Amino acid sequence: MKLNKKMMLFVGLVVLSNAVSAQIGIGINNPSSANAIEINATEKVVIDKTGKIGAGVAAPKTAIDLRNGVNGSMAIGMTNQTAAEAGAGAVRYNPNPAIGVQGYIEYSDGTVWVPILPYGKPRIVVMAEKTNNNSTVFETGLWPIGDYTDGIAGRSSAYLTSWTEKLDSDSGQPRTNFNPSTGEFIAPRAGVYFVTFTFALAPSQVNTSFGQNQTEAIWEVRNPSNAVIQRIKTNNGYPQDTGNAPNAVIVGSASTASLYLNAGDKLRPFVWINVSWDPDKRPLLNTGGYNVLTVVEL
Fold first, then answer.
1. Fold designation for 124-297
2. CA-CA distance, 179 to 146, in Å (whole number)?
3. What confidence tens digit (pLDDT) does each residue in 228-237 have?
4. Which of 57, 92, 94, 53 is nearest to 72 (CA)?
5. In the chain, ranges of CATH 2.60.120.40 domains
6. Phi and psi of 81, rounded to 5°?
7. 99-117 pLDDT, tens per residue?
């Protein structure tokens, strides 16, 4: 009996359908895995009926399974796509990262490429310097609540404001976790952060007639609702009266701590001073390097 073209096509489709519903072998006579495609008898590449691919793995458990115990590595190349173009969850290799690093894997969060550094943990790093006399009294004290541009108000809680940002990064990528205008850092994720800041007052006399002299460097933590969670204080006192001018001295303080912050917690440095001959404002020593802060995610 002669078959016309339509009958031959029908027979071919039936045969192919039966083959797909069972198994297909490429370079192998008798594929062993039911409902799968197998390639090469020694190093099998299996595509099972759910679409999972196993390279050297007879029964893949994930979308792509390479865990054959011998040659289970995976090669990833570089792409010039932006993180947004590649989409969240994309992975690439960056052979030309920052100085001192030999290359690393990056993943897209949908906005930027985030490096997975050699030890595997992303890190927040913030560094800033202050070279002006701007401050904000925020609690009732000797001086009224408000902004000041001519120094630190005595015997009043004053935030240090108007910083010069040196670095605000997450694993080498620029971020906006730190607000240099206010001096406030907002934790983008929960974790332990090592923080330190220092300040120094411009050289002047120190008077003891008002009682205990003190310069307090204080880290303040507030939750997203702006409630104070904790304050870490370091108090440096000056033990004696310096006498009249020109007996000027530099006084200041530093606060260093390791803090656990939840995502959204706000961290901010402030000071409280009482070292003047009178309860006046005292300018900072703004020649550079004295008034600095650092935040590092551990």
1. Jelly Rolls (2.60.120)
2. 19
3. 999 999 988 7
4. 57
5. 124-297
6. -65, 150
7. 555 677 888 999 888 877 6
